[in-house]
Amino acid sequence: MNEIDFAVLGTGGIGRRTLEVSQHKEQLRPVAACDRNGIALDRDGLDVEELLDATEGNIAGDGRGDTDGPDAATDGGVATDSGGVKQTGEGAGIVASEQGEPTATPIDDVIAVAEDLDAVLIALPNLEHDFIPRIADRFADAGYSGVLIDVLKRSRVIGMLDERAETFEEAGLTFVCGAGATPGFLTGAAALAAQSFVEVHEIDIWWGVGLKSGYKDNRGTVREDIAHLDGYDIETARDLSDDEIEEIVEAHDGVLEFHDMEHADDVLLERAGICDAEDVTVGGVLDVRSDEKPTTTTVTVTGTTFDGERATNTFELGDETSMAANVNGPALGYLQSAVRRNRAGEYGVFGPAELMPGF
Amino acid sequence: MNEIDFAVLGTGGIGRRTLEVSQHKEQLRPVAACDRNGIALDRDGLDVEELLDATEGNIAGDGRGDTDGPDAATDGGVATDSGGVKQTGEGAGIVASEQGEPTATPIDDVIAVAEDLDAVLIALPNLEHDFIPRIADRFADAGYSGVLIDVLKRSRVIGMLDERAETFEEAGLTFVCGAGATPGFLTGAAALAAQSFVEVHEIDIWWGVGLKSGYKDNRGTVREDIAHLDGYDIETARDLSDDEIEEIVEAHDGVLEFHDMEHADDVLLERAGICDAEDVTVGGVLDVRSDEKPTTTTVTVTGTTFDGERATNTFELGDETSMAANVNGPALGYLQSAVRRNRAGEYGVFGPAELMPGF
Question: Where do the segments described as Disordered lie (chains A, B) (predicted)?
Fold first, then answer.
């Protein structure tokens, strides 16, 4: 496959790590990155090291996916999935990099060069359900005909993207949704593990994340997770102040446990024909005060074989693998796969499990 | 994806189970099957149930992949991976089915209808290294431009197929090699598990197979495995009589343990860019006197993450899943994926890990 030129929207925890991991992938060349205040663009490939050094602990955005700024009507703004130190004012975020240029319209600036892009990875929080779908609209409206890929988690957003499938098909756009760790990596693992069976009864995805050193860079992710706690939803989580989030974390001694999450794995596995969405359960434990995982990330798939045996296949991640490692490697793998699909003329909306061998 | 019409060469243990499992896959329609004595052909889809009932315990072939018969020069013969009861004479194998017609040239008969086929699954033993490559030659020479897929195990055969890559590309033929359980299912699992890492140090594939009830149907497989034992190789295993094989099995009390097998997983993972072939080890335990697995089939992938942590990811198959379940589901999954590649204009030789998302 030829080289893939790609852009990253958002340079919070996920966006920055995506850029970092892409340096290990020969075929991938990051040529653009943006946050709410600025854009870095180099068609010969960004100097990722300089960009990361300049933006570490210096993130534009507070993890709320805020699009209500003065330029929201024209550009939608670019939030990041991170809360950092220097969040506002001169020198915030990407403009602190030598490669960054300030702009009031970062997404439009990326769209302006989109015809040179093979893929755009959307590393933005999605606390408004339709935030990422609306970004996709803007790319489609502008005639972009490459790959869009996100790492979103919410089941209901998939439906919003599906409503746009025809538009994407007409535009020649291939959208891959939920291509991070979970959904994403673990959805793919579940689809693979299901291959022993002719009928799948139950898929259980259970994750552990230790986020002490990455806590500040991943507040957007923590905020999204809090929306899954009893008593909270996406709207209430979005309205929480940073102090209120700290109080919730404090009240749980830094360890948040989640059950029956509305994680898109369920609809993504159903789309791929693996099982019914209702047979998928997702939960996990997040510890923001330790980098050690509070529990082992495990996917179990229980089904019946063609010869009538009931069994459970298991996929387990080593406890030393960070969330960042399990998001970004798979996301870039799915990105490459999506570019191949796109070049072969396959357009529309795909989940990670649909990019697995034709299972 | 549109419906896939496919043929199976060989109706031994693997071929028959492939037909059976395909009944659970909506998009797959088996339209042809052959063994050394006959062919069954129905463009509207074979009656798989009738075919299986008629050929159960009634297999043409002795598991040696014998191509030395009188018609070898013109047709190469079709062996199966199985030894059965009524192996020769009238009514042996597929001709026992109402759908079966006797023929002296079964492979040529399939080639004669190949333009109607999207895929051909080669479920034949490969005790002569170049047996399957030579079958591929015949399809390519006849202008077949679909998918050929096999479940072979031997590393060195991949090289022989690679030598033919250009011929396949010119013919518009997509060849997928080693798409059974191991290599195949477990190679794919290793490729997936490697996604946490930017460098993979070691992949260990360890399988357990209990084959009591399937022993008679899978003598070809057992013979191939014996070739991996100390003191044997592919040539000596091929020359063993059934009695000699029984003696070997007896001497091991029915339990054969294998280490450092020349299993194609190593070269297939290297092809896909996952790790070096020498970092892959394959071994396992075969028990022909019990259907219970003598050990749990496990894939472990050890690597280093982008953030410098060394860890091991693990994929484990439930002990109740039979070899047949783990061969045929994945083989048909890879077959579907290969047809998609073929239709998109991707020709040549692929391993299972290359059909995974663009990892």
Answer: 57-86
Among chain A residues, the shortest Cα distance to B21 is held by A306
Instruction: For residues A146 and A124, give the distance between their C-alpha atoms in angstroms, rounded to a whole number.
Output: 19
Residue B325 to residue A356, Cβ atoms within 8 A: no
A303 is in an annotated binding site: no
Q: Does B337 touch chain A (CB under 8 A)?
A: yes
Beta bridge partners, A6, equal A30, A119
In A, which residues are within 8 Å of B204 by CB distance?
Answer: none
Give the angle B323-B327-B328 at the CA atoms, nearest 5°. Answer: 120
Pairing verdict, β A174-176 and A348-350: parallel
pLDDT tens digits in sequence order for chain A, 359 residues long: 569 999 999 988 889 999 999 999 989 999 999 998 899 999 999 999 999 998 876 655 544 444 333 333 333 334 444 433 344 445 578 999 999 999 999 999 999 999 999 999 999 876 677 889 999 999 999 999 999 999 887 788 889 999 999 999 999 999 999 999 989 999 999 999 999 999 999 999 999 999 887 777 777 778 888 888 888 887 888 888 889 988 999 999 999 999 988 888 999 999 999 999 999 999 999 999 999 999 999 999 999 999 999 999 999 999 999 999 999 999 999 999 999 999 989 999 999 999 998 75
Inter-chain CB proximity B306 and A192 less than 8 Å: no
Q: Could you tell me if A144 and A13 lie in one domain? A: yes
Give the ipTM: 0.89
Indicate which CATH number applies to the domain containing B56: 3.40.50.720
Domain range for A331 is 4-182+325-355
- Whether B76 and B164 map to the same domain: the answer is yes
Write out the two tokens for B292.
């219970």
* Statement to judge: residues A272 and A332 lie in one domain: no
Shared domain check, B142 and B221: no
Distance from CA of B332 to the nearest CA of A (A): 8
Q: Pick the residue of B321, B327, B339, B341 with the most A CBs within 10 A to test the interface with A by mutation.
A: B321
Q: Walk across the sheet containing A147-150 and list its strands.
A: A100-102, A38-41, A28-34, A4-9, A119-122, A147-150, A174-176, A348-350
Which positions in chain A touch B319 (Cβ < 8 Å)? Answer: 311
Q: Judge whether A308 is closer than 8 Å to chain B, CB to CB.
A: no
Q: How far apart are CA A203 and CA A194, in angstroms?
A: 9
Distance CA B346, CA B148 (A): 13
Q: Does residue B319 belong to the interface with chain A, where contact is any CB pair within 8 Å?
A: yes
A260–B contact, CB cutoff 8 A: no
Q: Are residues B48 and B139 in the same domain?
A: yes
**Looking at the structure, do residues B11 and B119 belong to the same domain, yes or no?**
yes
Overall domain count for chain A? 2
Q: Kindly report, residue by residue over B148-164, the tens digit of the pLDDT.
A: 999 887 788 889 999 99
Q: What is the distance in angstroms between the Cα of B128 and the nearest Cα belonging to chain A?
A: 29
A203 and A300, same domain (yes or no): yes
Based on the fold, state whether residues B37 and B171 are members of the same structural domain. Answer: yes
How far does the CA of residue B247 sit from the closest CA of chain A (Å)? 30
Residue B118: both structure tokens together:
């999207």
Digit-coded pLDDT (tens) for A182-231: 899 999 999 999 999 999 999 999 999 998 877 777 777 788 888 888 88
Is the CB of residue B158 less than 8 Å from the CB of residue B268?
Answer: yes
Cβ neighbours of A310 in B, within 8 Å: 320
| Interchain CB distance below 8 Å, B314 and A316 | yes
Tell whether A56 is within 8 A of chain B (Cβ). Answer: no
Question: Is there a contact between B80 and B93 (Cβ–Cβ < 8 Å)?
Answer: yes
